[in-house]
Amino acid sequence: MGKVKYLLVALLGFVGLAVAAQQTLPLHTGPAAAPASPSAGLPVPPTPVGTPQLDAQDVNAWLDGFMPYGIASGDVAGAVVVVVKDGQVLTERGYGFSDVERRTPVSPTGTLFRPGSVSKLFTWTAVMQQVEQGRINLDADINQYLDFQIPPFEGRPITMRNLMTHTAGFEETLKNLLGTGTHATPPYDELLKQWVPHRVFAPGTTPAYSNYGASLAGYIVQRVSHEPFDDYVQRHIFAPLGMAHSTFRQPLPANFQPMMAQGYERASGEPVGYEYVGPAPAGSLAATGDDMGRFMIAHLNNGAGILRPETARMMHTTPYPGIAPLHRMLLGFYETDINGHTAIGHAGDTEGFHSDLRLFLNDNVGVFVSFNSGGRLGAAHNLRSSLMDGFADRYFPGQRDTRRVPADTAAQHARMLTGTYTSSRGAFSNFMNITELVGQIKVGLDGKGRLVVPLRPGVNGAPRHWTEVAPFVWQDVDSHERMAARVENGQVTRFSVDTVSPFMVLIRTPWYRSSAWLLPALMIGLGILALTALFWPVRFFVRRRFGATLALEKRQLLSYRLVRGASWLIVLVILGWAFAISKMMGDFNNLSDGFDPIIIILQVLSFVAFLGGFAVMLWDAWLVWRGNRGWKAKLWSLALVFAALIVVWIGFAFHLLSFGTNY
């Protein structure tokens, strides 16, 4: 469901920080910065002189030269690719294995894949069917369709249009996102009512991807149609299109189980097990490649069989105005224009499956690809982007943008973009907000004054090289990726890149939450606390060895011991948070009610350790400075106050000092 592992890299940075107080590279809560995959340098077969013919023979030859090596070198188990053209399946190909141990080959017609957030396109299609029938008004308060209330934000209600464009303003939700094996998630309608995510942005103002919002839309379809959501999609989308091997149901119906591909993190590893999706309408689809081809054909044919032509056109062409000229969110689809060709689509990820769908509307061509492994170092992500862009470059070639902003102006604009930014997609009201601290983007300049933006590198594994082609619009010289910024009152306030701009932006971080100074301060503070804690037993044994005594009067002796005990407790609680969050993100089965007791214990200990520790440090400093202690003791007492203050600051700013098990 979108990039479900986007927090993991940031969390690993937090673990490393807590354990060793080492320098952490700037990360972010969008597509995670990561090393190049083995397939990152995989060359897309070059386009020969003259545009190749978009026919089955050429596409098959191109795919067969690209896919087998890509999945093998990337440690990816298998993949399915479907290309449709002019209302027909042009080709559908299976590569590798749906079950590595049994060596079961992938079949486009007989293997089920889990396309993750591509499922949302079916939910949005169902919404538009209800719009056609007058049961849903895109611009009405959604509360009129619900049996529970979504509170307004700044006096403004949420509309279905907000849900479809990811501009409802919800924060990210992670609890019960995925479960595997026997760890089935609760029914999606129960999850919707258990907790309404905190509202971060006013409706219609800021794109922030939301699985909760998509699941809410599915529930509204269920409410207004008086049909269970799974039944509705089966009767009104799958059946009319002849999608006989597709379902949203969880667990998977028995007749489909023999067809289900295993999902893997890496083909050389163990299967991850069948994944239960908590916000089911946002990502629980299982379908064959052939069935996905039928869905693409319907939308390319203006919704034939499932939507009226005018409804389909509205869905495909009504944008939310984002940061011009980047790709925008439409009504459920997002723009993926390339080489001057109008294209729309959606991508999706679970733990075991990674998929993408793209429709070239004016060319009447669609492409769907799904991998059943992430592969070594995220190989599937690079493979699918290489395939989609390579397909467009081969069959719909275009000219590179050769415009350039004057050097002096470009240098000024680059300086204006520098700073620290926070993703609009994230957890903002609960303890998971700590991931933002190490997930903020730090935009800087290199020695030649060129922009350094630590986003996902290009498919060649190298950092992107940005060239300004228009005021505050940059082009990656090695790919189709663009970056653009919004300027208000002479200041850059937000920016994004084409890959995520339809549903996520980077917003300038306020100073009091900026990792630019908080991370160094925290590292210094943790170092002070760790040294204080570690030297307590060391000095004890040294004194014992040489028969020395600790010459402190009673109150000073008590404060001395409390300070050392508080230092140990603070460090251990921070390590506890790092361990707990890493376990939760390392195994999504831990993102459930079963992990709540650990969270509650850590929250209680955080108040005791952070606030109690800060009070102890203040008292100790007061005693030290009033007494006859030496200058070293006085300076160290201030250092301890500083260390404890930073921990308290971060605890409040990033919600470690809060209670609650909804996240």
Give the CATH superfamily of the largest domain.
DD-peptidase/beta-lactamase superfamily
The CATH class of the largest domain, by name, is Alpha Beta
The figure for the number of domains is: 3
Number of strands: 20
Shape: globular
Q: Order of strands side by side in the largest beta sheet?
A: 15-14-13-20-19-18-17-16
Q: What is the terminal-to-terminal distance?
A: 16 Å
Strand content: 5-15%
Q: Write the CATH fold name of the largest domain.
A: Beta-lactamase
Per DSSP, the total helix count is 16
Radius of gyration: 27 Å
Main pleated-sheet profile: 8 strands, antiparallel
Helix content: 25-40%
Q: How would you name the oligomeric state of the polypeptide chains in this document?
A: single chain
Give an account of the 3D structure.
- The chain has 663 residues and is an alpha+beta fold.
- It has 16 helices and 20 strands.
- The strands form four sheets. Strands 15-14-13-20-19-18-17-16 form an eight-stranded antiparallel β-sheet. Strands 3-2-1-12-11-10-9 form a seven-stranded antiparallel β-sheet, with helices on both faces.
- A hairpin with a 2-residue loop joins strand 16 and strand 17.
- Helix 3 packs parallel to helix 6 and helix 3 packs across helix 7.
- The chain is globular, with a radius of gyration of 27 Å.
- The N terminus is likely disordered.
Write the layout of secondary structure elements.
Layout: H1 8-20, H2 56-73, E1 78-85, E2 88-99, E3 104-105, E4 112-113, H3 120-132, H4 160-164, E5 178-180, H5 188-194, H6 211-225, H7 229-241, E6 246-247, E7 275-277, E8 286-288, H8 289-300, H9 309-317, E9 334-335, E10 343-349, E11 354-360, E12 365-371, H10 379-395, H11 407-417, E13 419-423, H12 434-439, E14 441-445, E15 451-452, E16 466-470, E17 473-476, E18 482-488, E19 491-497, E20 506-508, H13 515-546, H14 554-586, H15 596-626, H16 631-653
Antiparallel strand pairs: 1-2, 1-12, 2-3, 4-8, 5-7, 6-8, 9-10, 10-11, 11-12, 13-14, 13-20, 14-15, 16-17, 17-18, 18-19, 19-20
Helix pairs in contact: 1-14, 2-10, 3-6, 3-7, 13-14, 13-16, 14-15, 15-16
